[in-house]
């Protein structure tokens, strides 16, 4: 993996985006013996899988992006867990939740039904990213390399990033559909139906802010609580236990329920409000968090477009089939979790889209006569 680029790079396949889907596509194509290169706009790979790490040891502590998987009902996910030789463990949910009615009323303990089958990946979702990267050649990913334009001919796709040119038989766009439409100059006009589909496909996580509170120990478990909070007033609207399997890392995670513009305006004061809420919910005599981390996804230009801030905040449904078809002389494929038919927006959706694209590229290459 490197940050400095050559002026020109040629490969069979270029993948835009080194998030989970892009990395999975690269691994599948690499296993097929194809030359593939990933262009990542950020300084690190992983996309919306982002983590809190210990400043001293670098050890994984918590997820700032997607957390849950459901292997019992997600066969594609389960096959990748097996392929990558990772372990999963159940989401801790033993005990009552805390019901927060606001600072003027005492918090109460009460039962809230859990979501059936919630599991977490041992080592966090970051383990998916790290394991795939370890299987790829070190020079396969170019960081700090956002694509600025794409030009497609009958035989190749030409991708430019600043002063660098990348040429490939196939281009896979594994970044959020809205970001692909708005940030890349498409030298060939995309079909209007495709433009509409890209523009109207919400990006999961885009309107959200996720908070993680790190503690010395999981005191809520000792109180017979699950770590869940359900609040009508916030700032945390929902909260869950986020400890490691054996409790050596103690943490809570939740979604901030306040609107994005209010969150951004508050700045660091938002962390103070989170601390006050946690004290209110668990008791003033309980320990303060060692640290609070807030990931404001609405401010990430590689995730969020203006349309994402006015649309729904739920998981996207499967988009139209045009998102899953090849385009521009069968040179362009759109991927990413939002394009999946199975589990769109979720971790399984990223793997589902990766398998579809890798299969389609292999099918076309295997049926094409040598040039």
What is shown here, in short?
This protein is α/β, with parallel strands linked by helices.
Overall form:
elongated
Helix content: 10-25%
CATH C-level of the largest domain: Alpha Beta
Largest sheet data: 8 strands, mixed
Strand tally is: 20
Intertermini distance: 31 Å
Query: What is CATH's topology name of the largest domain?
Result: FAD/NAD(P)-binding domain
C-alpha Rg (nearest Å): 22 Å
Q: What's the name of the CATH homologous superfamily of the largest domain? A: FAD/NAD(P)-binding domain
Would you identify the regions where 5 or more consecutive residues have pLDDT less than 50? none
The helix-and-strand class reads alpha/beta
- β-strand percent reads 25-35%
The assigned CATH architecture of the largest domain is 3-Layer(bba) Sandwich
Order of helices and strands: EHEEEEHEEEEHEEEEHEHEHEEEHHEEH
Number of domain modules: 2
